[in-house]
Write a structure and sequence with these properties.
Layout lengths: L3 H6 L9 E2 L3 E5 L7 E7 L6 H7 L2 H18 L4 E4 L15 E5 L9
The protein binds guanosine-5'-monophosphate and zinc ion.
């Protein structure tokens, strides 16, 4: 399996970690859609939130959201948005679970 986020998490592709522990990594999105656009991902490969749910790793799920919301709170004085695109219709382009953290401008609703 050739997964770009596994390669980043494994250090094969350099990236500046904004947060890292044994379970979770946060990096800046390469193509930011807002002044703050971060990606928070598990180090372990899970294709999407459904796969993580199937794996029933409640601790990892909780940590993923805790890190994402903490980064949002730190960077989004007026609020922030967490997004998990899932599958083709959900707009997912990298099949390694990640939470987008968007902040720094008013975000429209509904999304595209
Ligand atoms: P998705 O479309 O799967 O919800 O989100 C994938 C995100 O990963 C996109 O916002 C895209 O800009 C970002 N991305 C893709 N490749 C790379 C990369 O090599 N490095 C970083 N930092 N972000 C990436
Ligand atoms: Zn992966």
């Amino acid at each position: 399996m050739d997964c770009i986020f596994c390669r980043i998490a494994g250090g094969e592709i350099p990236a500046t970690p904004l947060y890292r522990d044994d379970d979770v990594l946060a990096i800046a999105d390469i193509n930011p859609q807002a002044p703050t656009h971060l990606l928070v991902m598990p180090i372990a490969h899970h294709a999407n939130i459904g796969a993580l749910s199937d794996a029933a790793d409640a601790a990892l799920t909780a940590k993923l959201f805790a890190v994402a919301s903490q980064l949002g709170r730190e960077r989004g004085a007026n609020g922030y948005r967490l997004v998990m695109n899932t599958g083709a219709d959900g707009g997912q382009t990298v099949d390694h679970l990640h939470v987008h953290v968007l902040a720094g401008r008013p975000l429209g609703w509904p999304p595209g």
